[in-house]
Each structure stands twice: as C-alpha cells, then as structure tokens.
Amino acid sequence: MKNSIKLIMLLFISIIAIGCKKEESSPSYNKGEMTILTDESFKSVTEALAEGYMINYPETKIKVVTKKEDLGFLDLLHDKARIVVMSRDLSPEEIKTYEEQVELKFLPSRFAADAVVFVVPKDSPKESISMEEIEQGMQSDDKKFIFDGTNSSNLNFVAQKIKKEPKNLKFSVIPGNKNIIEELNKYPDKIGVIGLNTFSRPYDKESEQLRDMVKILPVEYKGKQYSTDFENLRKMNYPFTRILYFLTNEGNFNIANGFIRYSCTQLGQMIVQKEGLQPYNLYRREVQMR
Predict the structure, then answer these.
(1) DSSP annotation string for 227-257
(2) Could you tell me if 38 and 76 are in contact, meaning their C-beta atoms sit under 8 angstroms apart?
(3) Does any domain span residue 60?
(4) How far is CA 237 from CA 106, 214, 219, 230, 240, in A?
(5) Are 133 and 248 in a shared domain?
(6) Domain CATH for 172
C-alpha cells in the first residue's frame, strides 16, 4: 500500500515537473531577452521602439546593437541574431537564400519611412543637388561624397537608387553619421551623405545641435525639387525616401515577433512619428461632434 502511494506521488511530481518545463520553454512575447541588430543610421528609432516595448512589458530586456546593414543580414541568416532592421530591397537571390536558410516566407515588416539626405556646411552657397550630379559624383575620382563606410545602409541605398554596385562607386569615408556632420566643415568642397534619423527628432537637444551645423539639400528630380518633409516622405516624392523594415528568423510568436507587432501598432507608430519619421501604417483619427 505504501509503495503504491509512493508511486502515485512520484508520478504526480513528474507530471508537474514536465508541465513546468513546457511552460518555461513555451514561446513568450512578454518576457525574455533579445538583441536587435540595426545600422547606425536608424539606431535612434530602433532604440525608441525598444524602450517603448520594455515599458509595456517590464519582464523583457532588449539590447540594440549597431552593425552595418549587410553584415547584420548575414548574422540573421547564420542564426547569430533573431531580428535585424533593413532599408534596402533584397535581391531575388537574397530572398531565396533567406527563405531556404531561415525556412520562413520572406515577409518584411515595414514600420517607418526614413531617408538618405545630402548635407553641406551651414555657410555653404550650395542650395540644392540634382540626381544627375549625384550619379556623376559617385563615379568621379574627386570622391565628392562622404559616406559613413562600406556595407552601410546609406551607401547601399544610394547605389540601389542609381542602379550601380556599391563596389563600383567612388566616395570618401568618415565613420559614423554624427562624425560626418561634425567634421564636414573641414571639407567645404564635399557633401555628406547621412540617414535622416541621425537628427530627425524634433525636440531633442543633440539633434537640434546637429541640424544647426549643416544644411540639408533638396534633391532635384524631373524638374522639381523635393525636401524631406512629412508629405514628401509619405508620398515618397523625395527620391531617396526609404522604408525601414524588420526581418526575423523566429518562427513562433516569441519576443521578436511580439516586438515587430508592437512597432507596427498605433502605439509603435506614434513613437516613429515622435522620432521625426513618417509612420508606415497610418491610423485615422475620428472625432465625433455632438
């Protein structure tokens, strides 16, 4: 009799233990740790979204790590990261590789309209720049344009827009978008190429200081000049508007997919707007008058 009771007790404890293990290992979007890889050009909006997510889900811990766009994508393919932020369009070959290695359908989660902008010192007489000037300058030995490095989102996107391979373009390098702005005065004949999110936050003191150091050049395209205001980003009139999106290799609804869903909801899109970028998902505001 005693042996039977002991056996029943052991079975009961085993069932509870198994149940606990299943509960611990089951997917969870509201607790756990995760690292997001992002290019430095859109680190600010990524950090803002991560902070918002952690406030809503205090048991989560999200670390934002900067890495060149192409290298971040490779880390995702090799399962060294669970989520990356991208801006350029992937080639058909890259999409095929993603689907084969990650074993998921390629479904980019778009969340913001950002832009690559061309800047000159505040006292520069230059007032605008044309697409032709950009295309010619990127193939000139003068290396007129300054980028934040190779494999960067800014270089990749400009190369894609002018239908050239990055390796075939000629340019100067100053590592870091912020450093380009701060050092541009030393090179009055050069044009800096940075991500808008570097200083897009409207009420941030550091952003204000950086904006005061340079002048953003409107881009002339098909006879018209386009600036980076909200309307031109929303309608994608500005030629170098780019859509930021998340890619993940997470097949279940864990923290990565939870974060993506949050970023694309109204709350996440409000954070995008506070960052001075154009939300990708527009939500109608209805006011009832009585």
Answers:
(1) ---HHHHHTT-STTEEEEEEEE---SSSHHH
(2) no
(3) yes
(4) 27, 22, 10, 10, 9
(5) no
(6) 3.40.190.10
The residues that bridge with 121 in the sheet, in sequence order, are: 214
Both 60 and 141 in a single domain?
no
Which amino acid belongs to residue 127?
E
Asked whether residue 164 is assigned to any structural domain, the reply reads yes
The per-residue pLDDT for range 258-279, each reduced to its tens digit, is 999 999 999 999 999 999 999 9
Identity of residue 2: K
Whole-model pTM?
A: 0.86
Interatomic CA distance for residues 42 and 32, integer angstroms: 24
Amino acid (1-letter code) at residue 192: G
Domain hosting residue 101, numbered range = 31-112+244-279
pLDDT one-digit tens code per residue, 117-130: 999 999 999 999 99
Confidence class of residue 156 from pLDDT cuts 50, 70 and 90? very high
Same domain for 133 and 35, yes or no, is no
